[in-house]
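Lecture 7 notes: from sequence to structure.

We start with a single chain of 358 residues. Read the sequence below before looking at the structure.
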Amino acid sequence: MSETRSDRPSGPLRPWRGLIEEYREFLPVTDATPVVTLHEGGTPLLFAPRLSERVGAEVFLKLEGANPTGSFKDRGMTVAISKAAEEGAQAVVCASTGNTSASAAAYAARAGMACAVLIPEGHIALGKLAQALVHGARVLQVRGNFDVALEIVRDLPNRAPVVVVNSINPHRIAGQMTGAFEIVDVLGDAPDVHCIPVGNAGNITAYWRGYLEYKAAGHSTRLPRMMGFQAEGAAPIVNGAPVESPETIATAIRIGNPASWFGATAAASESGGGIHAVSDEEILSAYRFLASEESVFCEAASAASVAGLIKLGVPESSRVVCVLTGHGLKDPDLAISQLTVPPAVDAEMGAVLAALGL
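Now the structure, written as tokens:
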């Protein structure tokens, strides 16, 4: 059996090295693989006391917004870009609703590769678009949704020397499964229930594979029920058919035909869980609750996991992990739309005291 996190030396002489070095034995890398890393992974697993009280369970939040580019995508991207570098690739490409583009651009820049990104016109949060551009990616807005962009990207390697780094790349799934390893390392075993947003469905597929592999290696004694949550306006798996024009305020999961559809349904059925839908109103309510009650600012799509937990509930005293896939600063416009910006006051004490009601 390999060492667990508690067995490994810690302290100032052993900094976090990134997830490839931490979990090398589980990943498709060799000594010949040039590791392209921003020291991703090792994200907090935060106990949520008010959410726990609300649902009658022990709930933890996996804060994937703490990754270098602010989302869980970095887990898969470090492996995908490292393997692309091993193969001698000079350029990578992806279709994206935002987070993949930011991560691909950052890791490609780290590796000295060119990066091209296709995004659906008008359907990407500005924080994510800014990241892709500032890291030097060539960004194209496609007149169509994410699914149309991905269809084009799938065919590009047949026409140009590029590597696709969407989750159809198996190295992406391999990297993303390390999130499950970290949860088990911190909790000492798998949780009873694992709640996660579902868009292109690669993440739920990866977490389930991670739990399976870690249990097979003797690091855990059980497996969680996998509960995936789509937005009602973009819920093809729940509806049983692709959605031609998906619509939801949660742009990161605005996907009508998930590339990992089968992986998601397999994870749900094999674990005794399910894939369910939550409304935009439920997502935004959970988004605001997390910020005001748990001091966690996540992007709207992330809050789908918590919205689903609140909506469906779990058996009393269950241990639950909700994955929050990205940071709230990914979509500042949405955050501002949920708030009232305070008016200006005169720069003198009386005005300040009056405005504060003191």
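Residues 43 and 66 are 6 Å apart (CA to CA). Keep this in mind for problem set 3.
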